[in-house]
Structures are given as structure tokens and as C-alpha cells.
């Protein structure tokens, strides 16, 4: 009987304690709910400040390059650039995981506090009862806080993504539109590679950024791995950073990728006068640009020295040194500046030996990227002209230093090479320049040529098959008569600048008046 009374007393006492704790828990439940909500929000805030119970892993530039930053691998042969990813790209996921991990760690600590081993019996029961009665409200509050934080995070992220995406689209769209209107591209004067977007070197650490356009690594600005802030459009980067070739990583000319880019190869037989035409053409083009309110200048020392050497040869009347055979040419690049914009003019002058055989010109990649080409014809290599120079005029032939090689054969070899490499010649222009006209001006049978009827004169001279083939192969063919000796005088009708001026205009940078169109009006 005493045992029954003792058991009954204990049972009544236990029920009383449970009821008392239930009443206390019920009374404290609002506070516990608020405490759970507040604790969750505090954990989230501390985590974002990098002071939470579980610190998130920082997404670094090494993660971007190594592919562990959650970014898709880019198309092309290169990894992503070494730069800090935007928060909305990858870091938000790590922060969210850290917040959830911090809340899970708190729950785990409560569990270990109540049910962990090594506690005394009475103390264990106190902790167990306190956890069973007080923890549910606290955990429910924490869950409510987590949902609130999640909803708030989703709203903020969506707004951030929308704003960020709009900024990327606007910046990238404006950049692309302006460069497309300018017909801008980046062409390497050394390896001849052409790409719409150049690479850029960071001025802080010299790291190469392959694609600096607005994107996952930055909308308006990008932060290099070294901490340097870089502009994210080609138009802005071209004014602040050094542009590099995407293939060989050599420096490009200033403004590459942001200004009009015109590439003009000059081809023809050995000793046809190609180099002389380039030198005299640049001298005359400088005068023409000045008359049009523009200026011609050189951004690199190699091109500047080549121009100065050529100018000295032209003004002194000295003979032009033959271009070394077998040596690939570096582009002579001139920058043309006028009130309406800028342009880079790249002239390529390869030795005539490259154009004699199909196998010899396989390395001339600059032919593939040209919007227009200049074909140089030495009239003194034409059989009909040689027949006219018999007798007393035979010395004129020796004075002309005729080219070696049939111009028609040289043309067909080059045209076939372009087709073999997939170049759509039907979308390109060809300027045919008959040179050395200063030696023909006093000859009656060359009167039509010197007067500008070049096409008709070539047909009369027996190059009718070449004329028809050129007009069939290319979208537009225009014929010029050039004197690289007397034509450098301002306003001369046989100016060597004429072929280059015409192709400049077709390339998106008109300079001066088109004399042929004026004559046709």
C-alpha cells in the first residue's frame, strides 16, 4: 500500500510538473517564436558579413578559371578569364548554403545539449524536458524566419538578376552596335589573325583577359584577380588597356577592335612596283587626308620607320629595294583621323615570289581577311606593249625595269588560292593598278590609258581574259592608272593614293571625293 501511495504521488507530481511546463511553454511561445525568427535573421546577417557560425566559401578567380565557381565553360579554346565573379553569379549560392548550415548547426547544438552523453540523471531530465517543451516553438520560429529570409532573398535576387541582366544587355548591345557600324575588328599585323574582340592585358598584373565584354564577370566593370578594376566594353577598354592578338598575344595597334579596320593586300609579279606603290600611296594619302581635314599618323615605330624610309625614296627618286623573298611581311599600319571618326589602314606587301605558285602563298593569311585587294600590273610585261617599244623606244623598256612573270597567271594563282581557302571573292573588291605610267605619258598608243580609260586599254593590250575573269570573280572591280613618281603631287590625276582611297571608302571610311564617280555625274 505505501508503494501505491508513493507511485500515485509521483504520478500526480509528474503530471503537475508537465502541466506547469506546458503552461510556461504556452506563455513563452510568442517570445520563443520571435526568438527563433530573430535568431535565423541574425545568423543570415552575420553570415553575409562573414561572421556567422558557418562561414561561406569565397568564390575566387581561381574558381572561375578552374571551373569550380559554378560558371559554364566558355565556348572556344580558352578558359574563363582570371577575374572575380559577380555576387549574383555564384557567391549567393555559397552564402545561402552557409546560412542553412549555420541554422542546422544551431539545431544540432540544441540536440546535443539535451540528449548528449555524459550528463547526470536529474540534469539530463531537466534539459530533455526543457528542450521538448521550449524548443518546438523556437524551432517553428526559426523555420518561419528561414522562410521569410528565403522569400526576401528570392525577391532581392530576382530584382538583382533583372537589373544586372538589363545592364549587361544594354552595355553589350551598345558596344556591339557601335563597333558594327564602324566595321571594327582586331587584326594582328604579325600573324594576320582577325577577330571581332581582342584580348586585353591588365595594367595591374599583366594577366590576359580574353573576353572583356559585359557578362558573368561584370556588367559595367570587372575586377581582375589582382584587384584592379577594368572596363567591360571594347570601346572603353581600347582607350585604357593594351590590346593583344587572341592567337599570338602580341600587341595590336591602338584602337584595334574599336575603330574602322581596313586591310588591303597588294599583290602582283616580282618587281612589278608593289612596294613603290605602297610607299607613294601612303605619301599621297597623307596629302589627300590633309586636304580633307583629316590626318594620317602612325602608332607603332615599325610602321613609322617604313613610311619615313618610303617617303625618302619617293621624294629623292631613288630605286626601291626589292622585298625579300620568302619573308612574310608585317603590316604597315596607318591611323586616319577625322572629325567623324578613326580608321586603321593595314597594308600588306609580300614579295612577288609568293604569288607565282599556289603552294608558295598558303601562308599569306592576310589575303583571306581583306575586304579589298590591289592587283599591280606592270605594263612593260605585256607583250603588246613590248612590241610597241621596238627601235628607238627600246631604251624605255630598260629604264622601266620590267617585272618578271605573267600578270594574268599571277592573278589566277592568287584567285584560286582565295577560293581554295573558302574566301567569298564575290563579296570583295579588286583595285587593278597599272603602274609606271610616268614612262608612258608621251606615247600616243598609251594616251587612252593615261587619260583614265584603263579597262579599255587593257582589253586592247590583250588582257581581255584577265579583265573578264576579274569582273566575274569579284563583286566590284575598278581600274586605275598610277604614277608613283609624279603622282604624289597634290591633285595629280594618276595619284597612287587612288586605289587605297577607293578601298578605304568601301571599307567604311570615305576620304576625299571619288574622282571616278564625279566624272560619271
Low-pLDDT sequence parts: none
DSSP helix fraction: 40-55%
Largest sheet: 7 strands, mixed
Number of helical regions: 15
SS content category: alpha/beta
Read across the widest sheet, the strand sequence of neighbours is 9-10-11-8-12-13-14
* First and last CA, distance: 132 Å
Radius of gyration: 39 Å
SSE run: HHHHEEEEEEHEEHEHEEEHHHEHHHEHH
Strand content: 5-15%
Choose one word for the global shape. Answer: rod-shaped
Average pLDDT confidence is 84
Number of distinct beta strands: 14
Helices, strands, pairings?
Blueprint: H1 2-48, H2 61-66, H3 87-115, H4 121-182, E1 186-187, E2 194-195, E3 199-201, E4 208-209, E5 221-223, E6 229-231, H5 234-240, E7 242-244, E8 260-267, H6 274-291, E9 295-297, H7 301-316, E10 332-338, E11 341-349, E12 372-377, H8 383-388, H9 394-400, H10 407-420, E13 429-434, H11 447-451, H12 454-460, H13 464-473, E14 476-481, H14 498-506, H15 515-520
Parallel strand pairs: 8-11, 8-12, 12-13, 13-14
Antiparallel strand pairs: 1-2, 3-4, 3-7, 5-6, 9-10, 10-11
Please explain how this structure is put together.
The chain has 521 residues and is an alpha/beta fold. 48% of the residues lie in helices and 12% in strands. A 7-stranded mixed β-sheet has the order 9-10-11-8-12-13-14, with helices on both faces. A 3-stranded antiparallel β-sheet has the order 4-3-7, with helices on one face. Strands 1-2 form a two-stranded antiparallel ribbon. The protein has 15 helices and 14 strands. The mean pLDDT is 84. A hairpin with a 2-residue loop joins strand 10 (332-338) and strand 11 (341-349). Helix 1 packs parallel to helix 4 (121-182), helix 3 (87-115) runs antiparallel to helix 4 and helix 10 packs parallel to helix 13 (464-473).
Amino acid at each position: 500500500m505505501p508503494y501505491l501511495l508513493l507511485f500515485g504521488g509521483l504520478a500526480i507530481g509528474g503530471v503537475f510538473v508537465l502541466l506547469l511546463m506546458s503552461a510556461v511553454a504556452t506563455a513563452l511561445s510568442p517570445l520563443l517564436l520571435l526568438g527563433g525568427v530573430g535568431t535565423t535573421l541574425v545568423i543570415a546577417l552575420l553570415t553575409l558579413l562573414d561572421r556567422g557560425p558557418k562561414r561561406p566559401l569565397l568564390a575566387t578567380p581561381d574558381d572561375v578559371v578552374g571551373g569550380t565557381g559554378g560558371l559554364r565553360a566558355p565556348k572556344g579554346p580558352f578558359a574563363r578569364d582570371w577575374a572575380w565573379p559577380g555576387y549574383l553569379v555564384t557567391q549567393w549560392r555559397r552564402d545561402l548554403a552557409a546560412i542553412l548550415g549555420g541554422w542546422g548547426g544551431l539545431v544540432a547544438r540544441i540536440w546535443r545539449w539535451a540528449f548528449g552523453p555524459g550528463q547526470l540523471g536529474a540534469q539530463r531530465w531537466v534539459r530533455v524536458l526543457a528542450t521538448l517543451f521550449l524548443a518546438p516553438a523556437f524551432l517553428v520560429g526559426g523555420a518561419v524566419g528561414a522562410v521569410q529570409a528565403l522569400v526576401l532573398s528570392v525577391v532581392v535576387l530576382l530584382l538583382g538578376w533583372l537589373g544586372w541582366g538589363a545592364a549587361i544587355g544594354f552595355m553589350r548591345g551598345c558596344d556591339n552596335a557601335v563597333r558594327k557600324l564602324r566595321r571594327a575588328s582586331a587584326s594582328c599585323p604579325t600573324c594576320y589573325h582577325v577577330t571581332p574582340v581582342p584580348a586585353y592585358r591588365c595594367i595591374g598584373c599583366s594577366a590576359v583577359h580574353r573576353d572583356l565584354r559585359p557578362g558573368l564577370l561584370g556588367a559595367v566593370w570587372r575586377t581582375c584577380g589582382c584587384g584592379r578594376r577594368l572596363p567591360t566594353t571594347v570601346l572603353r577598354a581600347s582607350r585604357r588597356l593594351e590590346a593583344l592578338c587572341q592567337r599570338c598575344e602580341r600587341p595590336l595597334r591602338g584602337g584595334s577592335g574599336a575603330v574602322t579596320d581596313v586591310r588591303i593586300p597588294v599583290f602582283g609579279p616580282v618587281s612589278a612596283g608593289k612596294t613603290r606603290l605602297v610607299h607613294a600611296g601612303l605619301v599621297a594619302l597623307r596629302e589627300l587626308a590633309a586636304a580633307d581635314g583629316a590626318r594620317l599618323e602612325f602608332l607603332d615605330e615599325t610602321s613609322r620607320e617604313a613610311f619615313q624610309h618610303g617617303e625618302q625614296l619617293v621624294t629623292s627618286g631613288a630605286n626601291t629595294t626589292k622585298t625579300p623573298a620568302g619573308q612574310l611581311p608585317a603590316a604597315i599600319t596607318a591611323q586616319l583621323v577625322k572629325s567623324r571618326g578613326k580608321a586603321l589602314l593595314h597594308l600588306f606587301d609580300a614579295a612577288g615570289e609568293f604569288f607565282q605558285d599556289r603552294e608558295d602563298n598558303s601562308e599569306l593569311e592576310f589575303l583571306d581577311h581583306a575586304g579589298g585587294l590591289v592587283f599591280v600590273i606592270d605594263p612593260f610585261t605585256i607583250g603588246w606593249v613590248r612590241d610597241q617599244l621596238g627601235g628607238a623606244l627600246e631604251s624605255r623598256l630598260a629604264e622601266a625595269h620590267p617585272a618578271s612573270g605573267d600578270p594574268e597567271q599571277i592573278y589566277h594563282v592568287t584567285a584560286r588560292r582565295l577560293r581554295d581557302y573558302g574566301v567569298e571573292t564575290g563579296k570583295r573588291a579588286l583595285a587593278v593598278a597599272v603602274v609606271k605610267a610616268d614612262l608612258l605619258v608621251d606615247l600616243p598608243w598609251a594616251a587612252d590609258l593615261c587619260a583614265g580609260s584603263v579597262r579599255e586599254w587593257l582589253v586592247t593590250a590583250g588582257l581581255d581574259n584577265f579583265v573578264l575573269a576579274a569582273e566575274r570573280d569579284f563583286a566590284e572591280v575598278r581600274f586605275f592608272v598610277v604614277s608613283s613618281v609624279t603622282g604624289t603631287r597634290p591633285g595629280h590625276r594618276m595619284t597612287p593614293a587612288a586605289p587605297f582611297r577607293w578601298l578605304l571608302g568601301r571599307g567604311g571610311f570615305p576620304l576625299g571625293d571619288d574622282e571616278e564617280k564625279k566624272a560619271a555625274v
